[in-house]
Design brief:
The complex is a heterodimer of chains A (67) and B (338). Chain A has 67 residues and is mainly beta. Chain A has one helix and five strands. In chain B, the strands form two sheets. In chain B, strands 3-2-1-4-5-6-7-8 form an eight-stranded mixed β-sheet, sandwiched between helices. In chain B, β4, α7 and β5 form a beta-alpha-beta unit. The chains are: A mainly beta (67), B alpha/beta (338). Chains A and B meet through β5 of A and α3, β5, β6, β7 and β8 of B.
Chain lengths: 67, 338
């Protein structure tokens, strides 16, 4: 599937079709992550059931500790 | 006319009026590492009236590639960071009143340093301290300009009390661990980029511009950026900024606690509320940190790091063997857990 992630066009492996899988794909499952798809922030409880669509505009920001 | 700021005053959104506002500002920077040093230098050059910096650490040679205020002689002398910073900042701009505080920030000591400040700049190196400062900022109604970075990635968020979510609305629990510059490294350019955003946000606030609640991130190596308007994430019942706030991170029971175990040359550390170690992930992290003699069973994880033996229990507790020094033990604990 082709989506735009953080402003870049990317091609996701076929098995990545939910927000939860996207987060796992980027190894962010143990982090604090905020995900927005097509300008809507996705509630954390809905990550597993929220499906990605061809052409989705995804913004994904994870928190880090350092400074 | 003071020639010193003439080019900044000629920048129309600031002008002479804005410059006067900058001169009247008293800014607190919590942390004097990479982000702290970068923010401080830009703010002092921009002509803030007063700057206070708090930090618990001293300058080490491994800081110098990204912490621009410090020199080899500071590292050799093991100068506390804020002391070395004050010395350098006064050389850069003798008109600015610079105050340095050598202190390990916690929920009990932060408030006295927060009150009366125009803005607080986030330059801390861990999420727990960030949430402590967030609570103090919301309680005292002071903007908290959040910034963080590791590797080539960074983020920023202007937390303006009463105008959108606070950091606690966005971070509802402390993650089991997070990346730090000890595990994945960090490069100088991302520090400057995050700090540039923080200083810009500060100058905008001081000159009366609005700062919408936009969380933004950037990866300077991958050339990626993201922006999310997080206004809808304001939690009306947030315990830090909601209708009935209790400022949980300013109270003792939610903070990482350290105590010396008498006669054992050991410090026990209990992580703050809602923190549980996932031992398998933590084991991988310890290996990345070049910990030695890693032993793991279903209850605990043990390793040797930086001369200490550290035992991490699943319930968020740790024993740091080889010291009676609470400060040192906490520092080692935070380096390991992030």
């Amino acid at each position: 599937m082709n989506v735009r992630l953080n402003g870049k066009s990317i091609s996701l492996p076929a098995e990545i079709d939910t927000v939860a899988e996207l987060i796992r794909h980027y190894e962010l499952e143990n982090r604090i992550v905020i995900v927005e798809i097509d300008k809507n922030i996705i509630e954390k409880t809905l990550y597993a059931e929220t499906e990605l669509k061809e052409g989705s505009e995804i913004e994904m920001i994870h928190f880090v500790g350092g400074g | 006319m003071n020639e010193r700021y003439s080019r900044q005053e000629r920048f129309q959104p600031i002008g002479k009026k804005g410059q006067a506002g900058i001169r009247d500002a008293h800014i607190l920077i919590v942390g004097a590492g990479a982000l702290g040093a970068a923010n401080a230098e830009m703010l002092v050059r921009a002509g803030v009236g007063r700057l206070t910096m708090i930090d618990r650490d001293y300058v080490e040679i491994s800081n110098l590639h990204r912490q621009h205020l410090y020199s080899e002689s500071d590292a050799i002398a093991k100068l506390p960071k804020t002391i070395a910073a004050e010395k350098r900042l006064k050389e850069i701009n003798s008109e600015v009143i610079v105050e340095s505080v050598v202190m390990d920030v916690n929920g009990q000591n932060i408030e006295e340093h927060v009150s009366g400040k125009t803005i607080i700049i986030d330059a801390v190196d861990n999420l727990e301290t960030r949430l402590i400062v967030n609570d103090a900022a919301t309680k005292h109604n002071i903007p908290f300009i959040v910034g963080a970075c590791v590797s080539s990635y960074g983020l920023g968020f202007p937390m303006i009390p009463g105008n959108g979510p606070c950091l606690h609305c966005l971070i509802d629990h402390l993650p089991a661990q997070s990346e730090t510059c000890d595990t994945v490294g960090v490069i100088g350019p991302i520090v400057q980029m995050v700090a540039a955003h923080q200083v810009t946000a500060s100058l905008k606030f001081i000159t009366g511009k609005s700062l919408p609640p936009i969380l933004h991130s950037m990866d300077i190596w991958k050339n990626e950026r993201a922006e999310i308007h997080v206004g809808m994430l304001k939690n009306p019942s947030c315990s830090s900024c909601g209708t009935d706030p209790v400022f949980p991170y300013l109270s003792l029971e939610n903070q990482t606690k350290a105590e010396v175990l008498c006669g054992r040359n050991t410090v026990q550390i209990r992580a703050g509320a809602q923190r549980i170690f996932q031992l398998e992930d933590m084991g991988k992290r310890l290996a990345e940190l070049s910990c030695e003699e890693i032993v793991q069973n279903q209850y605990l994880l043990s390793c040797r790091y930086d001369g200490y033996r550290i035992v991490l229990f699943k319930d968020g507790r740790a024993l740091v063997h080889g010291t009676n020094d609470l400060y040192k033990a906490r520092a080692v604990f935070q380096r390991i857990t992030g």
